[in-house]
Write a structure and sequence with these properties.
200 residues, 5-stranded antiparallel beta sheet, 13 strands
């Protein structure tokens, strides 16, 4: 589960659309470590619970370790970070051609991602031993299936001192009504990164 924030990059002179992912939650330690070490993906390991209603999504919940409030006696506890649930209401009106349009649009598409890659110093814990802005392209190589989710959904984003998702992203704590949803089975390749800016 991740948040994709559109930004404009000027690394090559002319501005282009890029994506910044401030929070990414995965259920694999290997995926978390590789993403952080190589590119600077802001990944954390969580538990993801998914329930389906036939072929469509019914609910999705992300649970992970958090510090609800900072303090000398703070204790790490497991809490729900985000939840998505199908809500009552009329199905979204969507043309039948949208499915095919999206499938064709994303095959061979190149998405530019932007990361803040940094490693904390061992001696001074409030400083970085390496800090850089890194960009990398993700190329979609296969789109096996794609379909819109016509049912309306509600999204609830939680806020904790260690994970201020709603505050940092400018979102209400919800529930927030979705405007569009889709489901895809796809492959993509992360290409080699490039350092846009490095602190010296």
């Amino acid at each position: 589960m991740s948040f994709w924030i559109p930004v404009f990059s000027r690394a090559d002179g002319a501005p282009r659309l890029s994506w910044f992912l401030p929070y990414i939650f995965v259920d694999s330690g290997a995926a978390m470590a590789a993403g952080r070490e190589i590119y600077g993906f802001a990944k954390s390991v969580v538990d993801v619970e998914v329930a389906r209603d036939g072929e469509s999504l019914a609910t999705l919940q992300v649970h992970g370790p958090v510090l609800p409030r900072y303090g000398p006696d703070a204790t790490v506890v497991r809490r729900t970070l985000l939840s998505v649930a199908k809500s009552r209401g009329p199905d979204l009106a969507l043309a039948a051609s949208v499915r095919e349009l999206f499938a064709r649009r994303f095959v061979d598409a190149r998405m530019n991602l932007v990361f803040l890659k940094q490693f904390r110093q061992a001696v001074a814990g409030d400083r970085a031993s390496y800090q850089a802005i890194v960009e990398a392209d993700a190329t979609v190589t296969a789109m096996r299936s794609w379909r819109p989710l016509l049912s309306p959904y509600e999204v609830t984003v939680c806020d904790f001192d260690s994970h201020p998702l709603a505050t940092e992203l400018g979102l209400g704590r919800g529930p927030l009504a979705s405007t569009f949803g889709g489901s895809a089975d796809m492959d993509f390749v992360m290409n080699a990164g490039r350092e846009v800016y490095g602190a010296r």
